[in-house]
Each structure stands twice: as structure tokens, then as C-alpha cells.
């Protein structure tokens, strides 16, 4: 039994295991710091911080498990993530009782899109949601005779499917990159994307907390500052420049473009989702993840970063796509 | 049969509730884990019962008995078997008001006597999601018979969208379940019902905006 475990880990690219170990180490440091803070300041309530860190452990365990298990597990996990994200979005967006069957149809875009990932048909995946679900949804709505607020409701469904289903689908598609084309395997590419995106969020927050003064998008996100944004941008670009060549086939110009643009995409995704939440009047998209809010809150940066990362990789370094 | 019921609720009902509704619960600490106890919730959909069964910890689930209309749930033999043995309802004969002298709440009172947790919907029927209907007095009678049993108000937001009254196809939508601090029978019906209504409305005010536009 121990042999099977040992062989399993031996078959993984060493860089991948080091990267995962690095993430676990970071999480352990965070956990110990939280413990230390709780002991040092017994008066202050650190319950939220501790819940946040526990949730991180769960999320990272699920992701790491799926990545190590292979593309099938990763695709299944992200199909579930897309489902929960779409459910959160459609539950908050201004849907009407007449839209129920359209909502059901929108959920169906998940097996359709993910099927394209399973059969590895990139060309179909690329268009089936942005073009065909886009055309089918308004046609279905018109067929049901629903024309009140037609355009805005059509746009709402399209936005939900693009953001939660199509854009997120790029992450498991990364797992179909042949191992020969990536130094740490396909899982290394996913890990780079996820590490860079999450690091960007955390770095923006830390820089904002320490140096933040001038607000950047006050009507949408009152907590974001220019200092946080620039600090996060530079830190993440440096991180990508440093670990990019280890986890992906990117180098030179390609690496530079990814390093500069990926943090920007993450910020854009975050701000866009915040604008939607502000319009609806909620702070969290749901209460699913203790200490963090909803799933959509957690993956909003990813909805913009995933397609950009995929397309830049395909353009600069990966032959398959 | 209790083991089968606990198994079905833990392995089928709970994952189904999470898939269909996300089943987020606030105020979990207010939910009773032993009886006799009464849980009073608003009612907009059959999904309410599914949610209420799913939010209790495994050790308490066997004691949870949703009160349900006998005329609706025991009509069909298959649904009747399922309602009695899997959902574990305590039947309330809504139509037999005073015809043969039998107390319509007798099954519920017997359940409380056995130390179970009875879940009631004081509105009496599935109502409008936005306007809570007038609460019926049955819950006050139960509390009066068991004054030591805590009455926990629970507000369920959004279940009416998953399966509205009159629809057959359920659609996954986020729901929120909010449990509030329990109230106790103090001796008089009107203050008790007022406290219950206020408790439910206070929870409704905290609920996320999960409603049709």
C-alpha cells in the first residue's frame, strides 16, 4: 500500500510536488501566525481569521487532490465549481418566475461545455457557449413569449454562462496540455494560474492595508486603493517572472506579457463582480465558504485570468492549442 | 426503520439539499438537538421540509418530525409510506376540524411526549414568499402542553423559487436558512404568537435578497 503511494508521488513531476509543498508551507505559516496572534492577544476575536484559514485548507486540499488525480478529476471538480458559481449568480441576479425554464437551460450549458473539454475538442468548446448558447437563450425566451425587460434578461443569462461556465472551463482545459509541453506537467500550468491569481488578491490586500491611501474605484469597491493595486500588480508580476519558467514553458517575451497582464485581469474580474454585487446590494454572493463568502467571491478574479492565461500560453508557448 | 430513515436523510436528502439549494444555515446553535422541542418555520415550498431535515446534525435527525397535512401527504399509498417512514411526518388532519371530537394535534402531542423535535409551519399552508400569512394557533397549543419545550423560529428564504407551489420541475437556486433564539411558553397565547411572529420577521429582515425580481 505504501508502495502504491510512493510510486504515485514518484510519477509526478518533482517541480509540481515542490510547488504544492510550498503552498502547504505557506498555509501552515499562516495557521501558526494566527495561533500566535490568538495567544498573544487573548482579548481580540480571531475566529474569523481562523475560519478563513481552515477554509483555505479545505479548498487547497480539494484542488491539490484533483490536480494530482488527473484531468478527469480536475474537470469534474471544475464542472461542480461552475455549477455552484452559476447557481449563486442566477440566485442573486434579477430573475423572474417566468425565467425558471431558462435558468434550467442555462445549467445545461455546463454539461455541454464540459463535454467538449472531456472529448478534447477545443474548437467546439471555444464557440459553443459564446456563440451558440448566446443565440439559443434569447430565442428560447422569445419562444416562451417573454419580452418584458428582454434585452437585460438575455444579457444577464449570457453574462452568467460566460463568466461561470465558459471562462472557468479554461482551467480544466489546461490539464489537456500534453506533459511534454510543460516542465511541471499540465497540473503545473493550473497551479501557476491559481497561485498567481490568489497571490494577486492577497498581495493587493496586504499592500492596501499597509500603504493604502488613494481609493481606486470607490463607488464599486471602497476598500481598494491605488497603492494596493500597484503593489499587488508589481508583486504578482515578480512572482510570475520568478516561478513561471519552473511551472510552465513560458519564457522571455511571453513570460513578460503574462507577468504584466495576468494581475490586471485578476483585478478586473474582482472589480466587475463587485460592481454586480453593488448593483444587487449584497456583500457576499452566498455563505458557502466559511470566512470567505460565496464561491463566486472566491473565483471572481479567476473568471478573467483563466481565459487570458490560456490564450497567452497558447499564443506564446503551447503548440496543442 | 429509524436507521433507514437516518441513512436516507444523511446520504440522499442532505446532498440533494446542498445541490439544489446550497443549504446555508445561520444561527445553527439555536437549533434543538434533543426533544421535546418545537421548530416553527415559514412555508413557501415542499423544499422547506427537505431543507429542515438536512440542517440538523446526524445525531438529532432521527428525532426530527415535520408536521404535515394528512389530507395531502397520506392520500396516495406510495407517497403516504414515504411520508410516514422516510420523511417521518406527524400527520395533522386539517380537514377534520371538529367532526368526531378527535384532537387534530394528537400525533404531534404524542411525538413531543416521546421527546421528539416537532417541526411545524404555523402559516398552515405554502404561502407567498414575501408576505408571511397569519399564523395559526396550533403551535401555541403545542407549546402550552409542553411549556419546557423551546420554540425555535426558523426563516427559510428562497425555497419558493426552487419549487414554487404548483410547479413540478425543481430548479437549483440558493436558499438561506436562518434560525433564531428560541422563545418559551409564558402562559398566554397572544404574547406567545406575537413573539413568534416577531422572531420570524426579525430573521426575515436578516435574510439575503434571494427573491424573484
Explain what the structure shows.
The complex is a heterodimer of chains A (321) and B (213). Chain A has 321 residues and is mainly α. Helices cover 77% and strands 0% of the residues of chain A. Chain A is built from eleven helices and no strands. With 213 residues, chain B is an alpha/beta fold. Chain B has nine helices and seven strands. Chain B has helices spanning 2-21, 47-54, 58-61, 70-73, 77-87, 106-113, 138-145, 159-162, 189-206; strands spanning 24-26, 37-41, 64-69, 90-92, 117-120, 151-157, 176-179. In chain B, helix 1 (2-21) packs across helix 2 (47-54). The longest helix of chain B is centred in the first third of the chain and has 20 residues, at 2-21. Classes of the chains: A mainly alpha (321), B alpha/beta (213). Chain A binds chain B through residues 83-84, 87-88, 90-92, 94-97, 100-101, 103-104, 107, 280-282, 284, 286-288, and chain B through 22, 24, 26, 158, 161, 164, 167, 169, 171-174, 176, 208-210, 212-213.
> Architecture of chain B, according to CATH?
3-Layer(aba) Sandwich
Q: What is the count of helical runs of chain B? A: 9
Q: Structural class, from secondary structure content of chain A?
A: mainly alpha
Overall domain count of chain B: 1
* Uncertain stretches of 5 or more adjacent residues of chain B: none
Q: What top-tier CATH class of chain B fits best?
A: Alpha Beta
- Please report which band the strand proportion of chain B falls in: under 5%, 5-15%, 15-25%, 25-35%, 35-45% or over 45%: 15-25%
Query: Span between N and C termini of chain A?
Result: 38 Å
What sort of overall outline of chain A do the alpha carbons produce when their principal axes are compared? globular
Largest interface comes to:
A-B, 23 and 18 residues
Low-confidence parts of chain A? none
Helix share of residues of chain A? over 70%
Order of helices and strands of chain A: HHHHHHHHHHH
Oligomeric nature of the chains: heterodimer
Amino acid at each position: 500500500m505504501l508502495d502504491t503511494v510512493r510510486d504515485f508521488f514518484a510519477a509526478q513531476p518533482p517541480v509540481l510536488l515542490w510547488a504544492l509543498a510550498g503552498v502547504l508551507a505557506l498555509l501552515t505559516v499562516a495557521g501558526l501566525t494566527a495561533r500566535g496572534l490568538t495567544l498573544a492577544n487573548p482579548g481580540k476575536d480571531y475566529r474569523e481569521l481562523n475560519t478563513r484559514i481552515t477554509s483555505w485548507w479545505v479548498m487547497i486540499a480539494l484542488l491539490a487532490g484533483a490536480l494530482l488525480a488527473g484531468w478527469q478529476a480536475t474537470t469534474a471538480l471544475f464542472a461542480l465549481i461552475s455549477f455552484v458559481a452559476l447557481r449563486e449568480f442566477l440566485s442573486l441576479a434579477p430573475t423572474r418566475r417566468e425565467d425558471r425554464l431558462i435558468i434550467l437551460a442555462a445549467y445545461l450549458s455546463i454539461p455541454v461545455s464540459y463535454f467538449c473539454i472531456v472529448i478534447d475538442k477545443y474548437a467546439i468548446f471555444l464557440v459553443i457557449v459564446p456563440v451558440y448558447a448566446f443565440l439559443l437563450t434569447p430565442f428560447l425566451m422569445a419562444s416562451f413569449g417573454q419580452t418584458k425587460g428582454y434585452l437585460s434578461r438575455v444579457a444577464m443569462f449570457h453574462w452568467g454562462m460566460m463568466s461561470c461556465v465558459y471562462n472557468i472551463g479554461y482551467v480544466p482545459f489546461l490539464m489537456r496540455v500534453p506533459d511534454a509541453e510543460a516542465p511541471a506537467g499540465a497540473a503545473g500550468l493550473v497551479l501557476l494560474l491559481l497561485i498567481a491569481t490568489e497571490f494577486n488578491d492577497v498581495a493587493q490586500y496586504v499592500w492596501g492595508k499597509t500603504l493604502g491611501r488613494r481609493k481606486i474605484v470607490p463607488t464599486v469597491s471602497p476598500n481598494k486603493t491605488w497603492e494596493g493595486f500597484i503593489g499587488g500588480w508589481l508583486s504578482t508580476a515578480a512572482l510570475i517572472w520568478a516561478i513561471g519558467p519552473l511551472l510552465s514553458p513560458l519564457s522571455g517575451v511571453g513570460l513578460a506579457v503574462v507577468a504584466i497582464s495576468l494581475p490586471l485581469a485578476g483585478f478586473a474580474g474582482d472589480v466587475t463582480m463587485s460592481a454586480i454585487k453593488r448593483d444587487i446590494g449584497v456583500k457576499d454572493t452566498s455563505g458557502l465558504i466559511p470566512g470567505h463568502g460565496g464561491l463566486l467571491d472566491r473565483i471572481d478574479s479567476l473568471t478573467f485570468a483563466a481565459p487570458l492565461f490560456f490564450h497567452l500560453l497558447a499564443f506564446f508557448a503551447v503548440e496543442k492549442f | 426503520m429509524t436507521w433507514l430513515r437516518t441513512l436516507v436523510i444523511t446520504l440522499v436528502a442532505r446532498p440533494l439539499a446542498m445541490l439544489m439549494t446550497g443549504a446555508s444555515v445561520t444561527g445553527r446553535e439555536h437549533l434543538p438537538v434533543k426533544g421535546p422541542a418545537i421548530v416553527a418555520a415559514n412555508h413557501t415550498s415542499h423544499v422547506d421540509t427537505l431543507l429542515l431535515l438536512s440542517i440538523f446534525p446526524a445525531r438529532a435527525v432521527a428525532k426530527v418530525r415535520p408536521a404535515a397535512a394528512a389530507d395531502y401527504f397520506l392520500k396516495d399509498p406510495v407517497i403516504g409510506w414515504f411520508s410516514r417512514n422516510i420523511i417521518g411526518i406527524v400527520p395533522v388532519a386539517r380537514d377534520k376540524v371538529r367532526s368526531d371530537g378527535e384532537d387534530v394535534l394528537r400525533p404531534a402531542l404524542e411525538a413531543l411526549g416521546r421527546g421528539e423535535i416537532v417541526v411545524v409551519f404555523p402559516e398552515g399552508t405554502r404561502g407567498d414568499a414575501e408576505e408571511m400569512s397569519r399564523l395559526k394557533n396550533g403551535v401555541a397549543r403545542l407549546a402550552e402542553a409542553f411549556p419546557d419545550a423551546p420554540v425555535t423560529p426558523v426563516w427559510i428564504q428562497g425555497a419558493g423559487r426552487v419549487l414554487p407551489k404548483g410547479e413540478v420541475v425543481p430548479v437549483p437556486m440558493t436558499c438561506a436558512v436562518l434560525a433564531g433564539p428560541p422563545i418559551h411558553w409564558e402562559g398566554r397565547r397572544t404574547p406567545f404568537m406575537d413573539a413568534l411572529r416577531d422572531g420570524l420577521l426579525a430573521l426575515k429582515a436578516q435574510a439575503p435578497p434571494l427573491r424573484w425580481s
